[in-house]
Amino acid sequence: MGWKYELKFPKEKKFVIIAAPHTSNWDFLFFILLLWATKVKFVWPGKHTIFRGPTGFILKKMGGIPINRTIKNNLVNTIAEKFSNNEEYIFLVAPEGTRSKTVYWKAGFYYIAKKVNVPIALGYIDYRTKTLGFNKSFYPSEKLEDDIQLLKAFYNSKKGLYPEKYGEPKFKV
Fold first, then answer.
1. In a domain, 167, yes or no
2. SS3 for 56-108, per residue?
C-alpha cells in the first residue's frame, strides 16, 4: 500500500506510547497492525461501549481496557499501579481521546508516565507522507510547558487523514 514505518522504541521495558494525530478509525487499525508485526505486547484504553458482546471479548484479548468516561474512575492511579506490578508494561493511548477535533488533549498519559517515571514514546501517523511509527521518546520533565512545546514541535508537522479534526497538544491544567 506504499506505507513506510520507523521503529525507535525506548530501551526500557515499561513506557507509555501516545498515538497522534487520531482523526480516523483507520489510525487505530494501522497502529495495532504495526505493533502486532513487531510482537510488542501492549494495552490500550477504549470507550466502554465498544466492548459489548463478542466484539468486546476480542478487543479485550487484543489488550483493550474498557473505560467509562461518564464517571470518575481514577485511571491514572489504576494504570500507574499496573506499571508498578509488572516487569514489562506498555500503555498505548490516543491523547486526543476522540476522532473529533478537541481543544485539549487528555493529559492522563503524561501524569501516568510522570508518576511511575517511565518514558513517553511518540507514536505517529502521517497520511501526507504515508509514514507511521515511533520516532522518539522522552521522560516528563518538571516543566509541563516545555514538554507541551516538545509535543507540538513533533506532532504539528504530522497530518491525519482528516487534518481539520486535529487538535494540537494542549492540556487543561
1. no
2. HHHHHHCCEEEECCCCCCCHHHHHHHHHHHCCCEEEEECCCCCCCCCCCECCH
